[in-house]
Structures
1.
Amino acid sequence: MESKYNKTRRDFLKEMSAASLAAAAVSIPGVSFLSSCDSPAKMAASADTVILLWMAGGMAHTETFDPKAYIPYSKGIESKKVLSTFPKVPTIVDDLYFSEGLEDIGSVMDKGAIIRSYKSGDLGHILHTRHQYHWHTCYEPPQTVQAPHIGAWIAKELGPANPVIPPFISIGQRFTVGEADELKAFHSAGFLGSEYGPFLIPDPSSGLESVRPPKGMSLKRFEARYKLYKELASKNETLGKGSDYQRESLSRSMEQSYRLLNSPESKVFDLSQESKEVYDSYNTGRFGLGCLLAKRLAQNGGRFISVSTEYEPFLGWDTHENGHLRAKKMKQYIDRPIANLIRDLDQSGHLDKTLIILASEFSRDAILEGRPGEKVKDQVNQPDVIEDEKFYGMHRHFTDGSSILMWGGGIKKGLVYGKTADERPCSSIENTVVIDQVHQSIYHALGIHPETNYKIEGRPFYTTPDGHGEAILDLFT
Amino acid sequence: MDSIFQILGRLHPLMVHFPIGLLIIALVFEIFTLKGKRKSLRDGITLLVYFGTAAAICSSIFGYILNVNEAYGGELVLQHQKLGIATSILSSITALLIYFSAKNNYEKLLWYRIMLLLTVVSVSITGHLGASLTHGENYIFESLGEDDENYDLEKLSATLAELNGLDSLSESQQENLNLDVRAILAHNCYQCHSEYKMKGELALDSKEAVFKGGESGKVIVSGLPNESELYKRITLPSNHKDVMPKKGKTLKKSEIELIQLWITHGAYWSDRAVKVFDEAPLALSKPNLPAERKESHPVDKIMGQYFEENNITWPEVIDDRAFIRRTYLDLLGLLPSPEEVAEFISDTRPAKREQLIEELLLDQKNYTEHWLSFWNDLLRNDYSGPGFITGGRKQITDWLYASLMDNKSYDQMMKELVNPSKESEGFIKGIQWRGVVNASQRTEMQAAQNIGQSLMGVNVKCASCHNSFVINVTLKQAYGFASIFADTLMELNRCDKPTGVLSKVSFLYGELGSVDAPTVDERLELLSEVMVKPENGRLYRTFTNRIWKILLGRGIVEPVDEMDNPPWNEDLLDWLASDFIDSGTDIKHLLRTIMTSKTYQLKASKYKSQEELKIGTYVFNGPVMRRMSAEQFSDGISQVISPMFYGVAYDPNDEGLSARRIWHREIKFDRDVLPEPGKRYFRHQFELSNKEIISARALISVDHSFVLYINGQRIAEGQDWRKVHKVDVLEYVKPGKNLIAIEATNEGNLANPAGVLFAMKIENEAEHLIEANTSWISTDQVPNPSWTSIDYDAKDWKNVKNYGSNNWDKLLDFKFEEDYNTFTRASLVKQHPFLKALGRPSRENVATSRESQATLLQALELTNGEFLSATLEEGAEKWLDEYGEDAELIVEQLFQKVLSRSPTASEKKTMLNALGDQPNKESIQDLFWTILMLPEFQFIS
């Protein structure tokens, strides 16, 4: 693979120190001074860490962060009248209203921004995992080569922020649910190589198990075992003397892994280190604890962390019926822990350098499947007249007008970007945002060049298709 | 104002030569003054350093202005800038040291000399980076065989030498000149100026477009280069904003001159298609073997000559122990047993190596179950993955397994893949996700791409969007190829935009014969015939090269999917491929031919970095050391320690019993969901006649654990769902009504798959089979203790749900017959996190090379992964049972089984020390782990 634009400052220093110690000695203190001379669009990072809060299954914008006219339930109302099934509530930002049940997140909106005009890809007949693949990789499947997850790109370009914390951690998604194979397809580093793939922690409360010696093995035994391995490996002469790249890479990776598993930093993964009070304040379930783990990781050198409400067909945000009731529960599930996460990182001073994003693969609507003009095959039966509360809510997949929330990492505070119509179809009508822009904005915050690409099978493969899409600079301070 | 800055900025390239020159001369003079000589130079050096410093500072300032004004970008600029400033600072310090020292005494200052030296180092690097910016970087690419400008510059120079100075050109000279010019355009201009991407509304890839010009009018004035915009642009200074191909990258002198010559001679345009990129010949002829060589094996004769030409003496051949391991792993994917190794080593027959190869080639089952992985990767055939969910994908394992068992000839396999039966159609069928896909990913196009990549070693992927920039395949050709598989006319889409042009059916290599016919079936038949023709040398070279890579670690051509790249030994590749055809494309013949050569049996050669394997630098010195594949590694552990897998996703001898599992139906929001952890209770009642019962046997396996009752009696329990418990229940069943009751537990913290697998065979006057199915009932409420008895009233219980077999591999041992000594080959199991970590690809795309580099995630899986850890623990118990506490025996056996040798005295001492006086489960388990992590085990050397 040939790489372009992917040298980091670290690499630069490393190379230079090899080339000329003196030059490096001069240029190290010079770095900050020199980069401030750069034109603003160049490679300056406003964030070191990214947390993606993934609302899996399609979160309706009209029921959450972009409320429309509230139509309370009554037997016999028409489906087409239903725009929002919750009243709206004020947030800390003037003139910004959320749907009832999101008061806590509303109270931290003075620290972040909301995009109200995300338009997902038009991929035809809906398959959640295909839209999720598109959101996470920026490419529509299938592709001729396996596309990397955005977390893998970031892991590849920036490496770990703390050498013993894997740079791409995915929390909360199991792979034993429906569409598991499709989920696996994008939880992957693709052609970048498994080295940059996700470190999976389906259950945040057992995250520690992934980073400590095997179950039932004492630290002493673990250390002795590694010592034995080193000793035996050093005695081994069957492969002959002299070094080769294969053995070097093997022994390097074994050592790294030993260091990680034996490191005091593995405590970062241990939620029991938190006070009961804090633990309980996050604990709305697995997602809440995922936010708590994300907080700990962000404070200790995590690079890219995703926390998912988890996709399981017809569950979570994938409301095919009982939409109102289920949206209410989902809001209880996410509201407090997300607000805690923002507040805690702000208080510990990490929010400035941590970009937090909340997003979903698409939105929902009571009537429309697909989007206006691109209507696709209905997957949910929705009666014209609602006689049963079960049909009250957003049950169809709507691919326009989703909300994306962002905090920290150089994002403007209190900003509302884009707008959706107040009447159905509640599509984006101002500053429509597409996935390439979202990715480029994240890369922009991290100082990753917009045209970062690798050559694979003779073609350049960019972070966003053909390197298109520009960061939305208006989002940043 | 701006223009003043612009001028200043553009002075930078001029200015920079001063500090470089002045400071270097200062250093040279300084060297002359060493040991107190030539004091007269002192004043000159002072001035040189002062002026040099001033020039360095000016250069930095001008450079900064240039960058701001002309918006250079990229890391290289940043580095250049930093170093430029560093140079200014360093030289300023040097100048200040001179200025503040007592009159001309500064030569005594060691610090001054060091600073001057550093200044020169710094200015040199800055200059080099600057030159890279101006003249283009020449990065050494990470991977094999990436070289953008692999077209023949020498040929251009030759053309130039031939034509320069001639008054008029012959027609053939005009033809050549034009084709050369078009090659230059293709390599340097098409990326921005082609029908695909027309910057400035200009395209340079067709006659019409070139002479039509772009937004600023015509670009070629025939006969007058100096009035032709195209020529003007390519001759601008390299940092000019209008220079072409682009700022910082200009054409080479010979290229510019050739274009000038072409315009001068009237800008003739040939009608011939231009083969822009080097292309491997299609035809194949068997090269003569080098005469009069002492080597006996044909491959060795060719390699003997190669070694001679490269001044290499024949490297050393591996010993018997290494040979038997290598051969076992390569042919069967298994480790030889200690007995087999001992027998082979003591065998004195001179041809024992050939005989071993022959013997192993006859082990069809193990051969098949090893090579299956290679073919699955190549044909991206898998047991799970995206596409299956909506019927958009089909497996070909039955066909593949049978083909390998029969050693079906390669050409026959190819025919059956391209013109498939129901069993083999999965390959060209592709993967269809639900919804609308990009035009370049229609399944017909996938068929063209996959046949191209896997079978022909040609990349059709680029060209399925636009004319390829790296090989001679056009959009039209890609669509022509894809149309063979399409039952309707295909419209060409360029980068997913319709063009209005309809495709015409054709194969990439039209010279092999027509594939046009009215129906898809007829076309597929034609294609299958055309593809396997011996004239299609490409098909056979591609496969031969893949096999060479598998066996020797690096292809004769790399990357193995890009067969237009040059081979490091053309005769070797062509001889092997021709010999393969001569054998009737017998795959085992090809393996035998390579493996019986001395060349295959050489010691692995050491390469310090992968750079040494690149095209151009690579020299064959012996095989490249290979890492065991995920499958070889797992199978090795299964063989000597304890089975890693018990169930298969693909069962070659698909037999009777159903692998369906049942569980309590769990509902949330009216939906069936994954079972929550906890205990569930199952009942099933059945009735037998009054006849005497002759035999009764039950099979049970529960994810995660169970207690089995029959007619109220506790009979068996188990913790490991990967194992089948086989229980004789004759004394518990009785004529009349019977009741099976199972208390089953789903473990874990989260909802996760759980299931009961059960079968019972009862023989009285007839044979009865009772299997778990949806007539069984269950509850999640703790029942009254009498629930296991037949009289218990289970009216609140509900019918169970059938969870199928998808979440569990099929347990091979789930049968009434006893079957000792089996373990499941890793090639037959579904993608597993352990296998994935060790490099088994997810087969959504063709992946013909496994990653060879070890990674952290992999090491983590090996170091603390629960899966491996549990297997080793289980193995330790077995070993403890078998060898007791005899530490010496354990160590000896371990080395023999895992490494095929005895431990050295020192190794033995270390291991015994670790085992302690009384080996226990833990110490044995740690010994296992240690030896499995050794490079000696993990690499095929």
Note: Chain B has 33 helices and 20 strands.
2.
Amino acid sequence: MSNAATFDTRTDTAIPVESPLAYSYRHSGAPRAGSSSRLQLRERAMLGHLILRGGAIVLDEAVRDVLGISLPGQPQALVQDASGERSIQWLSPDEWLVIVPGGEEFPLETQLRERLGDAHFAISDVSGGQTLLELSGEAARELLMKTVVYDVHPSNFPVGKGVTTVFAKATTILRRPSEERWELVVRRSFADYCYRWLLDAAAEYDVNVQP
Amino acid sequence: MSQSKQQVFRLNAGGRIDRSRTLSFTFNGQHYQGHPGDTLASALLANGVDIVNRSFKYSRPRGIVAAGAEEPNAIVQLGSSEAAQVPNVRATQQTLFNGLTARSTNGWPNVQRDLMGLFGKLGGQFMPPGFYYKTFMAPASMWLTYEKYIRKAAGLGRSPMEADPDSYDHFNQHCDVLVVGAGAAGLSAALAAARSGARVMLADEQEEVGGSLLDSRETLDGKSADQWVAQVLEELAEHENVTLLPRTTVNGYHDHNFVTLHERRTEHLGETASVINGHRPVRSRMHRVRAGQVILATGAHERPLVYAGNDVPGNLLAGAVSTYIRRYGVAPGRKLVLSTSNDYGYRAALDWKESGCEVVAIVDAREAPAGDWVDAARAQGIKIITGSAVIEAKGSNRVTAARVAKIDIEAFKVSGPVQELACDTIASSGGYSPVIHLASHTGARPTWRDDIIGFVPGLVKGVQACGGANGTYALGEVLAEGVEAGIKAAAATGHAAQAVNLPSVERLQQGPAVALFQVPHEKPTLRGPKQFVDLQNDVTAAGIELATREGFESIEHIKRYTAMGFGTDQGKLGNINGMAIAARSLRRSIPEVGTTVFRPNYTPVTFGAIVGRHCRDLFDPERYTALHQWHVERGAEFEDVGQWKRPWYYPQKVNGTTETMHEAVARECLAVREKVGILDASTLGKIDIQGPDAREFLARIYTNKWEKLAVGKCRYGLMCKDDGMVTDDGVTSCLAENHFLMTTTTGGAAAILEWLELWHQTEWPELDVYFSSVTDHWATMTITGPEARKLLAEITDIDLDRDSFKFMDWRSGKVAGVPARVFRISFTGELTFEINVQANYAMHVWQTLFKHGEKYGLTPYGTETMHVLRAEKGFIIVGQETDGSVTPEDLGMQWCVGYDKPFSWIGKRALTRSDTKRENRKQLVGLRPKDPKVVLEEGAQIVLDPKHAIPMPMVGHVTSSYYSPTLKSGFALAVVKGGLQKLGETVYLPMADGQTFEAEIVSTVFYDPKGERQNV
């Protein structure tokens, strides 16, 4: 253990939780559209989000042992497990974002800490601070062109890539887990702004929201 | 010509218009008809509308001169309703649609009978260049008054007074090669680049793609030029990586090949976009393009000749005459005189003749013109008058005759007798000016080329010009240059060239052009009739001459003195002529005089497109806490703190009336002091710090000591910049030996995280420590007041005993069933617990607190009450008590500075400078107004002697000031020179309204000076 305080912020009792978009669904609604919809927006709420910091050499083996997937070897890379439910994304030379099903983050942190022992690293739980939005549909790339400054052309943004970029006047983590899907990781406090922006920009595509 | 509702000037055949359909439109209240394919300008000409505007300064009648972006006169206001108003649209660029409603921008009561014209605006005849500067600049204080009236008279369009029903957006685009302009050069460049597989964007500002090929007399592979255009477009459409943007003006070229494009998506269809499937499509779109390579294929603008009366309606550019005939099927008159300095101008006469109208004469400035088009004109039996020019146009509302004479260009004089030729149209051509505007946006100075009598773009890395933009005008050469540019650009972005077979083009014999700009008149320029250089800004040749005589030698000064090339025109037609006239007056060469700088945007851009979606409630991000819904439902008023919306206060309804802010804050303050209050403190920045060197790092970044802070303990920390000035503060807690949680100010959160990373990465990389923002992960609820312990005890398993959970301790446990970290720290001076839970649980915990809190009088309070309570305790707010010039010592916070720490922490050295050590620095003190009802103004200046003559020496100012319901008095914090030595002294605060307030300098701690209440 690295002499850091771990803290399981989740409780297993039936205590109500609110996703970062709870306010937005009440105030801006969640438009439903028929088969004509060219853009689907789905929130993957309450997932486990960890920020992993440390040298790649220090972390790689432990991550592979504990999570079963290896640390992305390249900058701006996104690695997922076979189910697609667990992923690691390169954020900066010594910083990774790990996303796992909700509730797995604390056991994962504990196991990683045990496995890493006295090595120098940091793990911070940010599960309450961000949410994951999934975009799919034929207009997804066009919507992103209205929204992020980064080049989302397939030649520059293949599947398995992830970047941190400007989202309108905020920032986002943008990733492409598969041909059809894009994912946005937005911070809780900016989530309503991002959601309203997406609804507005995607209105012309007959956006369909799945909360 | 009389105004007619028949399209009397419409030709029976030819042009790219659809005569089978008719569109109705309104101009200046009159109804007219045109056809699909028309611009507003071509439709006005077809209807014989001569006067489309009144001029800017002299209010002279003006007609259509050009057929494109360079049109200086036909500037109209569009819109049939208030909300649909669009100012400053060029009629030559506005596609005609059914129901279009337009007005002249100038002219009162109308353009036909303009009263202002009788006198000239503001006495136009008496308005020499520099008039505004000479007349209105003094006294300077009156400028705002003058400006209002001058703007009204100046007569550019007006903005709508109602909300725009349309929507706009931005597109972020990336490409290998951006081709600007889809004429002969642009199309061949795009084709070459596209075949290499590069990502290509091709933008063209016109309704139809093809540029001059759409009205060319020349053939490609023996077929009409527009067939080749169609064939190229077909191929480009098949390339997946090609984006073709018609109706898209490349308006701004910025650094590093960042280019802004303005696409008009519905402006050709109607004045507002029609709703489709319940959505209104965007009217305009701004493309923000990051291009690897840029190819400027912007073509050239024909340069008019400058002669007397050249602004009378009926004076047109030669090329515009051809365009109206060949593209729009309109002959803009009956009897033409052409005045030219080159072979290209002859095409207008040939087109005119072929359309069945009369060419009175071609007047050529050259003694012996020779070339294929000259021969063609001779063969048609057109009279050619050589060595001559039109020296003056006669007529007032329309040209009635051209005065023609032999001229001596070298000596700048009329050298033969004048003959008058009756006509209604004078076309002129002084050659071409490459459209160098975009290249100029980078600041690159253009280069003069004698061989083409024009400036070509000064280029920067990653940019090429080809075709007309590069001074190349012969069609075959233009196509070849385009291909070469396309191949080069593609190669530069890593794409190998593919062969492009160019179509065969007839080789034309052409004679050399002569450099003619201003045509001499019998009278000297200053005394002769007006010769206009810049029609939009009413700048004359005489005006430029006068400016040079008055000592303005730099072209930039001449521009500002005369207004040449100002405004929406940006000197498209007039600038080169103006420079040539300045050069002649100054007896210099044109390259010596140089050009002025063209600025973005190339043509006016509607504000909507600039704003895009960043308007109304998307203007700026609003950051919400996890409890925002509750605050809204509770009726909170919000305060902006950075981008956060924080509850400011919670007004209640008392007996049907809503509390004022003062009442609400007083109630909230007393609730905290007497019972218990609750604050949403989630916005405070929170940084998770881990690593064996975390403690050492804190000691270097903060001014105070961290060596002995035990696990489970919290400490207030103060941060300085390297200049020794306070930059942030907050409480940092020791979570484990190698693990700390830092809190920062709300506004400083992002900057402080960067600050930590900066020092770690650049100065102390040897320290093993990592930082991560956890601001959004935690929701923070502060319960504070004498009843806080009782309330929390009801819903937590944490032992709250005062001796085991002391002030400045933290504990973890469950609150309302949710895992929580609770910190016993206080910003109010009362017994306080800060409850932190994962944000997704926040609403449940907050509501549970209220369920249990009612019996204790739990009262939500906002930032205003927080400010009052902390100020009563003398707690500073960084950014309020500090302004980047305040040291810890100025704040009396020596207790928070570890002078003897082993490592030199940030700011230490600066605090030993003589300036930071001097005696009379402004120091933080308390102020108690002599009259308890007075609440001093924040920012009010403090003086020691109110009877001192003005200017009084100012010794400080108020940083925070409130009314305290607890003290039943106003009170303030202030910085005063040497203030800590002045406790008990009286100071004065003279106010703008003449009152002077008196106050006593006191301690900064107004309440509970021993700090007993927070320790209970």
Note: The mean pLDDT of chain A is 96.
3.
Amino acid sequence: MTDEAFEIEAQALAQILDELDYFQILKVGQAASPTEIKAAYYRESRAYHPDRFSTLPASGLKDNIGRIYKRINEAYVCLREDSKRIKYLADILGGERQKKLRFVEASEQELKKEKEQEVGATPQGRKFFMAGLADMAAQRFAAAERNFKMALTYEPNNPNFKAKRDEAGKLVKTDMSVR
Amino acid sequence: MADPGETAIGIDLGTSYSCVSIIENAKPVVIPNEWGERTHASVVSFLEDGTVLVGNSAKRNIITNADNTVYSAKRLIGRFYFSDEVKKAQAVMPYKIIEGENNSVRIQIRENVFSLPEISALVLKEMKAIVENYLGHEIKKAVVTVPAYFNDNQRQATKDAGRIAGLDVLRILNEPTAAALAYGFGKDITQKIAVYDLGGGTFDISILEIGKDVFEVLSTAGDTYLGGDDFDDRIMTWLAENFLKVHGIDLRLNKYCLQMLKEASERAKIDVGRDGVAKIGVEGICQDPTGKVMDLTAQLSEAEFNKMVMDLVQRTFKVCDEALQGAKMTAQDLDAIILVGGPTRLPIIRTSVKHYFQKDPMAGIDPDEVVAMGAAIQASSLLDSKSDHYLLDVTPLTLRVGTVGGYTDKIIDKNTPIPIEKSKSYTTNRDGQDKVKIRVYQGESNKAGECELLGEFEFSGFRIGYRGEVRIEVTFEIDTNGIVNVTASDVETGQKTSCTIRLSSGLTEDMIKQAQEKNARTTLARGEAAA
């Protein structure tokens, strides 16, 4: 590749960096094997490692390469480890893909918060939520919806409570239409 | 071929010895000084007339000019004055270690005060002079090596030392990585290797995967408080205890006797490693209360020596376990073991390494010179845009930020490839807050007290609003030198905020500039005659 073509490519890549997921950064498929991921990392390193541009004076090109290469490392760190890769793939295939392109390991505090949100952070919220889950299991959807609504009065911002309320609400409607 | 003015040198700046190398005819060669010495004691001796000696001639002054001769500066570089290593050094070093501003460490020589980077810069100046004398032209660029397990403060201080010596430091390179580069360079091999690097003051182990043109560090682990010096200390304690038992005099109480004891111990270690036995004899080591001059004589067998240092040797393998675990490997997965550092010449190390890895270490690699040679390869490659190999190195320590109650939160894991960056956002917790303070640490504990503090950054200049309203995104970057940079910006406006480092043992730009002038003015009395 000519220097000019490379410069254009680097600039284009730097511009869309925040829209790419790690598979796209390393230019591999989502089913790539660990060997393929390593080979891709070596290939991209060969192209973008900042050492190859150390003789260049400070410039926009150098900044772009720095940004790209840091993201290549970030992608490799995530995809080379099975546990991280599985979570990451689920993240980008789920909703809000754009927000989840950069892998974030949950900190211990966040994990605790997540767990609390799942079953409720207040004793009353937890009580109604559990009752709602029991109603769901017994297919008493209207009762479940009421219990989830009660739980939400104690924890109005709990996303898990909201999701369950909506789920129960939908089931109540389909239930009625079937009848 | 780059033009001659563009020669970049590779410097192995060791705790005990330093070595310098350049590329000649596409091969790294070690440059000896005018007297044929290939390694040079990392010792700086300040003479009465203002001239300065560096190297093996300076080392001879440790006893005669003890107060004004600095050695093992690498043990102190980048440390805070309150650290244990500094306290330990104060007890045994004959030169004066004092406290500078911001908890930094300074060395006082007569009425002059030096920072640690300034001392190391004098060693670097000598290395630069050796090559300049050999080539006949000035050298401006260098790659300087550091132990892989060095933290950000130590790397930054080493880089400062290079700048003070008038060098453009192209890279701070990890010693085991440099050794691997010298080993694999130009060979078309695909191997998984371990570099076992036991130096004068530090121990490192790195696991690498090397290919035709790629050197990937999979993991690194180390102990910056373990080296050949500790082996000397064991012999020293043994000699001193015996002397105390027989003569009732503790040689360690007098700093001059202590230096002679130290020198004898180092020699005994080398002798016992080479010959299987060491005959120790120091004439006139001290005087008894009646003024009678006393000699120290002893004999050390290999078996006795091995017993003395066995626990130190075992400690290195605990670190090896950690590195293998980090690389998700077992010893059987490795194709080659490379030994680096003078102490790896000891039979106890070679046999223990062979036993642990179930493999003979590679022969034909000079453990004193291989790091400088790797540094020269990297130096030349950084000047050559067509160079076709590349190093993928990692950060050795987990980067953390302080949280409430003396705890820390992980930002970047150890063994993460560099360069890398990670951002974390913070919100203000008071109305009208105009500053955010962040303490940055490196280490493997979630307790701040068990990690190394890198500094306290204070960000200001963002919008002022109600509590929780202003969000600041702090970006932590580790560059290819393994050096940490912290920046912050206001999330909403994108406005970069200014940063002051409140707690840091580092030098300011002004201090570096002054030190550069002082270094340039200093004359090195080079040569045997000077000693």
Note: Chain B has three domains: 4-186+364-389+513-521, 228-307, 399-506.
